[in-house]
Amino acid sequence: MRRYGKNPDEDDIRVRPNRKGNRPRTNIRPKHEDAVEGFVLTVDRGRLTCLVEDRQIHAMKARELGRKGVVVGDRVGIVGDLTGDKDTLARIVRVEPRSSVLRRTADDDDPFERIVVANADQLAIVTALADPEPRPRLIDRCLVAAYDAGLDPLLVLTKSDLTPADHLLETYAPLGVPYVVTRRDELVDGNAADRVRELLDGRITAFVGHSGVGKTTLVNALVPPERRRAIGVVNAVTGRGRHTTTSALALPLPGDRGWVIDTPGVRSFGLHHVDPSRVILAFPDLLPGAEGCARACGHVEDGCALDQWVTDGHADPSRLYSLRRLLASRERREGD
Predict the structure, then answer these.
(1) What are phi and psi of 330, to 5 degrees?
(2) Which residue from 292, 287, 267, 268 is spatially nearest to 277, judged by alpha carbons?
(3) Torsion of CA 9, 12, 13, 15, to 10 degrees
(4) pTM of the predicted protein model
(5) Quick one: pLDDT band at residue 245, thresholds 50, 70, 90?
(6) Where are the alpha helices (H) located in the chain, listed in sequence order?
(7) Domains of the chain
């Protein structure tokens, strides 16, 4: 034991600093009240491109956000270098509450949800009438996802110069889904694009569809030339398109008339995350009849009160058939 004598002073005694730090830990995080609002345009391997006022900047997610994801369509708070100059990087410190979230899973037995886009208010389901052949089951699944997310669906049928649209439109007529039919030659002269823009005016619309249906070709016809994306072709042997769109991208319509969000082509649309009880919310004419159903009724079993509701003439039988077809699409794999 070290001795300092009878009258030690401060020079004789050495105080060791606290190796764990002198400042106590705190759960208080900075509020970043000076953060500027931005709109996420695309996400690429952890780097995000955001629109801040009239310029694009690159940013990364701040560590304090933890596991909270940031996706295309998010409105975020950004701090740091906001000049947008080359080799600059800002930080996203806040994600504003979302008005909607479009989700999908890789398959029906996959519990891991993937957020496709945030804050969209319309879902454009793009399908070709031929080359490749339409896939009604995939359309049904996209409709279920739209209804579950609270998005208004829009059916966009392309390549009507190869096959008429009448049969497919008849299938979805009871749902009352708005639709637009396009031809390949109309995309060149702009007539089809003008008709589609009318349905997108003032809205944030996410475009989804199977690879090769002409989704990105249509998006390119809608946006200014400098914003166009690369497109692929359909394989003549397999009838499948090549994935040229590898990440979602938000693009502005001319004249600030809205946004389109082009998403990668999908070959399946898992619905593991969807609560079947929410699907009927898209059928207001059937909803009152469901009040007589048993608590655990899935609206497809014998004894469902909706059968009597339709029999009594309160709703068109084709509407109940459409509801049950959509509910069944959740229970069956897309390829079945």
Answers:
(1) -75, -30
(2) 287
(3) 110
(4) 0.81
(5) low
(6) 136-149, 166-172, 184-189, 191-200, 215-222, 276-279, 305-311, 317-331
(7) 36-95 (2.40.50.140), 101-262 (3.40.50.300), 276-331 (no CATH)
